[in-house]
Amino acid sequence: MDICKSKLKILLSTIRCSKELNQWDHLLEYANSKGNTNPHLVLESAWRVPNWALMKDALSQVELSCPKEMAWKVNLYRGYIAICHPDDHHLNMIERLVELSSNLAIKEWRRLPHIVTHIHVPLLQLSVTLLSRSIGVFLILSTIYIAPPTD
Description:
Elements: H1 2-20, H2 24-31, H3 39-46, H4 52-65, H5 71-84, H6 91-111, H7 121-145
Helix pairs in contact: 2-3, 3-4, 4-5, 5-6, 6-7
């Protein structure tokens, strides 16, 4: 039993280090390897590689088993697909997904202890991501809907 715990600790440490080193292609390969499928890791890795089709498949798997505390993250990934998937642009959904992710994250934040600890970090990172995505959406939509000047 101790050997299994040790192997699991090493594996989780390796995954964490690979994320910190931005080795997303290796993580994606590992997450998709035979007998080792991890849709959460596929989802997290696929959008960074980017592999939009694989990300969309992983998202559909994760949505089915996602705890409600992580619903904000699912909507965040939906937003990435709505913006970046070449065959599946849904720019009209982005504002709604940003708002939904924000509201779910705020509800989750209120559920956490009042003293800020490491458990708050993902939600703090999300707030930065949502802000930058909102700015990006504004820029994308402004280039689409603002007519170019005529000479």
